[in-house]
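Narrative of activities, Objective 1.

The group set out to show that a structural description can be obtained from nothing but a protein's sequence at a throughput compatible with the screening campaign. Below is one input-output pair from the validation batch, recorded exactly as produced.
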Amino acid sequence: MIQEITTEHLDDLEKLENRSFATDRLSRRNFRYLLTKANAITLADIVNSTMRGYSIILFNTGTSLARLYSLAVDPDHRNQGIGKHLLLASEQAAQDNDCVSMRLEVRKDNYDAIQFYKKNEFKPMGIIADYYEDHMDAVRFEKLLAPHLGLEMVNVPYYRQTLDFTCGPSVLMMAMKALEPETEINRQMELRIWRESTTIFMTSGYGGCGPYGLALSAYRRGFDVEVYVNESSAFFIDSVRSSEKKEVIRLVQEDFLEELRQLPIELKYKTLSVSEIQEKFDTGHIPIVLISSYRIYHEKFPHWIVVTGYDEKYIYVHDPFVDVEVYKSETDCINMPILKKDFERMAKYGKSGQKSVIIVKKKKPETFS
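Output recorded for this entry:
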């Protein structure tokens, strides 16, 4: 019988894990965290007090994405349909938690597992290099749990930010790469754009990137840009207490604005709705959006994401931040589905609700008369 389990089954989980995997085993400590603190559900097939298999489903807070973190069947009970039943129960648990898709990773050399997931309608969606302890690559799979939704997507290459404060440069690089595939994106560019567009100070530590600096960075690299903000005050100024730091932030952004006004960059004091963002997307442009990270990470800091698609219910985004401390991988951060009503709520930052969307476009070819 498949049931949701608790820490009472730690011994059985640990025993099954050690019998099922030679490497990359979950430890007792891992299982305890997943059972008590993680945003997760652990299911097990138990018959006559014997655990024959388990599955762990992770949920991505603030999004409608589930990840099958691990699925194992005891070697003595394989080829009896237990894995299939656990998988179906896991999919149902994801749907019960309003998830629109489920993702997972499999070793590239695990032929049997790859065929198992393919037979159960999971589609390969990429390779993660050097994913396992022995440096084996992983194949990333996804299954849509609501295939009836009319999905409009664009291929936006994923780039994972390498520092806590470089989300802005990372999403801008993704947008540029989507529009001009020959654009080379790397850590050197990530840091260069951060230097160009940082506000110098932020809540604590290194400065974050505001919309004006990011727009200038995109323009300097040959892209047309539209900037939408809902107010004229300096961005992130309330994130610091010191009046001296506030003045520095204000001066930096005023300098950005002076340069921006001398260039053919459209700056509009207007809030873009989800439907207007979709319209921009439909014309071949890539929106990058400022959000509050609270609804995803439960921490109040400004964060940039890039829109990759939409359907009737969801906006899909790449999030450059991978929170490995809560067992996330890149699989959780690519094309994340967010309910449109939730997206409207998170697309603002700070007490004043500062909003910004940057529309990155291919630069129009020059004409000569």
